[in-house]
């Protein structure tokens, strides 16, 4: 059975989560409230063979680390730089879910941003960057 990474994009009130295989295959991604996080983590740990947890170093990272340690999972926790992950998340979202004509027109005239929370996409990008860094270090 392959081992997966759990990546978290912490925030003040919500957390983006993504499960990704070591060969960068997305398994799932979602956004949960801080109140739901513990239950969601337990579901993930029961469903996947998580061997490492990657956490972006943004707002709320320390609080999330404490919650994970409280679960006593004995999983490796790695904190990584999440710089530009939000911008990259928006770009990825727009590639996967193209804008309507109206949105494209708006974007030409104003600095339009996606209204949907993209923390799940940011968590996925944080994991991909981490795996790319490991690949470079192995070479």
Automatic annotation (TrEMBL):
All residue ranges annotated as the YqgF/RNase H-like domain in the record = 3-89
What is the official name of this protein in its record? Holliday junction resolvase RuvX
What keyword terms does UniProt attach to this protein? Cytoplasm, Hydrolase, Nuclease, Ribosome biogenesis
Naturally occurring in which organism (per UniProt) = Halanaerobium polyolivorans
Q: Tell me the Gene Ontology biological-process terms attached to this UniProt entry.
A: rRNA processing
UniProt GO molecular function = hydrolase activity; nuclease activity
Q: Does the keyword Hydrolase apply?
A: yes
Write down the top EC class of this protein: hydrolase
> EC number(s) on record?
3.1.22.4
